[in-house]
Amino acid sequence: MVANQTLRAPAAVRERTTDIALRVVQVLLAAFFLLAAAGPKLVGQQYAVEMFTQIGAGQWLRYLVGGLELAGAIGLLIPRLAALAALGLAGVMIGAVISQVLVLGSVVMALTPAFLGIILGLIAWRRAYRSAS
Questions:
Q1: Contact (Cβ atoms closer than 8 angstroms) between residue 123 and residue 83
Q2: What is the 3-state secondary structure of 26-65?
Q3: Of 19, 50, 63, 128, which is least packed with CB atoms within 10 Å of its CB?
Q4: How far, in Å, CA of 90 to CA of 78, rounded?
Q5: What is the per-residue pLDDT across 94-120, written as a single tens digit (0 to 9) for each?
Q6: How far is 4 from 122, CA to CA, in rounded Å?
Q7: Where are the domains of the chain?
């Protein structure tokens, strides 16, 4: 019985370490989306206005994307909403990649949202898996 508990201890420690690391990544991503993504869009910084003008869908899309990023950033900080928030932000990042490549013609600029989308997808998967077990 003692040997069985000893074998489980490293797995429990590994699980706890992974959970803490994931939480740190979520906080960092929330800060990024709040300050560097949603903020400029919602306050109308010049580069955000110009980018959405180039996209051609109108400034309403800038407000929508900024609002979704803000909601996602807040959701990443709430344990019960983290998986759904990460999934939603991953969807926004898919849209950003498509816009960068097909509309704005910049494959290089699409790398950041692609990377963020992958990280957010992993967070969504891990948090959904964690809450299911």
A1: yes
A2: HHHHHHHHHHHHHHHHHHCCHHHHHHHHHHCCCHHHHHHH
A3: 50
A4: 17
A5: 999 999 999 999 999 999 999 999 999
A6: 31
A7: 2-132
